[in-house]
Amino acid sequence: MEILVLLVILMIVGAIIAVETSNLLSSIVCVGAVGFLLSIAFLFLGAPDIAITQLVVEIICLIILIRATISRDLTAVSGDREFFGLTVTLAVVLAVAVAGILCLADFPEFGKSVMDRIADPPTASSQYLATGLEQTGAANIVTAVLLDFRAYDTLGEATVLFCSILGALAILRKKARRRTEEETEGDA
Amino acid sequence: MIYALCLVLIVIGLYAVVAKKNVVKIVIGLAIAEYGINLLLVLIGYRKDGCAPIMSPDMDAVKFAATSVDPIPQALVLTSIVISLGVLALMVALCIRLYERYGTFDITEMRRLRG
Amino acid sequence: MNDLSTTEGMSLIVKTVTRWLKAFILLFGIYIVLYGHLTPGGGFAGGVIVACSFILLNLAYGQRQGMKAVSLNVAGEMDSVGALIFLAVALSGMFVAGSFFANFIETGEAARFKLLSAGLIPVSNIGIGLKVGMSLFLVFTILSAMHVAVSGSERKMIRRGEE
Asked: Which of A153, B74, C13, C127 would give a disulfide with C85, using CB separation of 3.0 to 4.6 Å?
């Protein structure tokens, strides 16, 4: 699909700008643009659930990143690391690129979904689509997969989110309490 | 062809993680690599001219199973997007703490590992 | 919450628009959570939208007044309640129907495509929406309480090319 190729090329341009620019605020705005284009690409790929989630999560990511960096004076970035050097960077990037290109040969051709590669016995996706409404009663098959057929993965994901937020709060707790205590003392 | 473009996006994010000095740039690179990976997962489940995996009352179940896109990569990508948000919050909390402690975002100045 | 002075928070236009819009954003988030089994959305997207409405309140009115709607303790409690609802759904499946996460509320064919269909799925959606929304609001509040704590002689400027 041509519109999809155009969207991914725009995302690549936005990503290059985000990585190379020296002003931190500009690079955060470019990351936001890449996220919005990704949400539109998800709409063209027939995934409205993910498009909504990606849009609102992108907004929260932007808010968190801007809150962290906006009031600190550091806006100049001083180039590349010296101890990794140019050769190690190129080696790592080339290794991943070559491994990715070798994997590309195994992918299904674009437009033929991965669940069509095996026709008999029917794959799990075909069975979920055919019997999802009768077995769970939910019209949204993605929700049925997330919360009924594969609910254990959702439990794992809720646990991961809980622990990461707990870690973020534990890291920032001491200063925050001191700051809000100063504020309430100032008011009283 | 579009898989190769997706791989370029992942490699750009990885390059930013490996080669940049500013710790906020490293976080941004990781976010871009995550976007690329989520896009790749949804791309392999796409069926040409397929409909979204949501049933309406007038659809026949067998015809729906033959024309819809794959729902399992979509469920996993939904999980992955929310997890990447939690990990980004944790990384940004670490960046703020590092700034408190060393006064800079530059990782080459943070070599002294005192407690 | 009706203090429209511009000493803290944002300007008067932002405060007025927030005062009208915050209920609509919250209602939209709750709609996406509740109808997650019929239309696109679900617990995660709806929970993030609910968090966005409280974050908007905090951003527009400043930290001190924004915390009167949802304080930190209430957010922490509701976060844990959401996680416990989800876990209770999982364990109740095990105790009532024999396997972990079994959907034991049977709905017949007449109840499809309506709001109260799909067994335990809406309950799980509510639990997850509550949990995700309150977690994100909590992390944003703690992050923004920190951002003015770094000032003075601890900051350092790095110029380009200087090592």
From this structure: C127
In sequence order, the 6+-apart residues with CB closer than 8 A to the CB of A85 are none
Q: What percent of chain B has pLDDT over 90?
A: 43
Q: Does B54 touch chain C (CB under 8 A)?
A: yes
Using CB atoms, list chains with 3+ pairs below 8 Å to chain C. A, B
Give the pLDDT confidence of C26-50 residue by residue, as tens digits: 999 999 999 988 889 889 999 999 9
pLDDT of C113 above 80: no
Which neighbouring-strand residues pair with B12? none
Length of chain B: 115
Instruction: Kindly tell me the burial class for residue C152, based on how many C-beta atoms sit within 10 Å of its own C-beta (0-12, 13-18, 19 or more).
Output: exposed
pLDDT digits (tens, 9 = 90+) for B78-105: 999 999 999 999 999 898 888 877 777 8
Of B44, B64, B74, the CB nearest to A107: B44
Residues 72-91 of A with CB under 8 A from C: 72-74, 76-79
Number of cross-chain residue pairs from B and C with Cβ atoms under 8 Å apart: 33
Rounded Cα gap, residues C8 and C95, in angstroms: 53
Which phi and psi angles does A80 have, rounded to 5°? -100, 165
In chain B, residues with a C-beta closer than 8 Å to the C-beta of A160 are 83, 86
Q: How far is C140 from chain B (nearest CA, A)?
A: 9
Q: State the residue for tokens 């033959």.
A: B66
Q: Which chain A positions have a beta carbon within 8 Å of C117's beta carbon? A: 137-138
Predicted TM-score (pTM) of the model is 0.86
Tokens encoding B30? 């990781």
Report the number of distinct structural domains present in chain B.
1
Give which of A11, A14, A18, A3 is closest to B5, Cα–Cα.
A11
Whether residue C104 has pLDDT greater than 80: no
Q: Evaluate whether residue B114 is within a structural domain.
A: no
* Chain C interface disruption, residue of B74, B76, B82, B88, most C CBs within 10 A: B82
Number of neighbours of residue C162 by Cβ within 10 angstroms: 8
* Residue B75 near chain C (CB below 8 Å): no
| Domain CATH for B49 | 1.10.287.3510
Pairwise CA distance, residues A16 & B23, whole Å: 17
Q: Domain range for residue B52?
A: 2-109
Tell me if chain C has a CB within 8 Å of the CB of A45.
Answer: no
- The interface predicted TM-score of the complex, written ipTM, equals 0.90
Q: Where are the domains of chain A?
A: 1-79, 80-142, 150-188
SS3 (DSSP) at B25: helix
Q: Determine the distance from the C-alpha atom of residue A43 to the mean position of all C-alpha atoms in its chain, rounded to a whole number.
A: 16
* CB distance B26 to B94 below 8 Å: no
Does residue A146 belong to the interface with chain B, where contact is any CB pair within 8 Å? yes
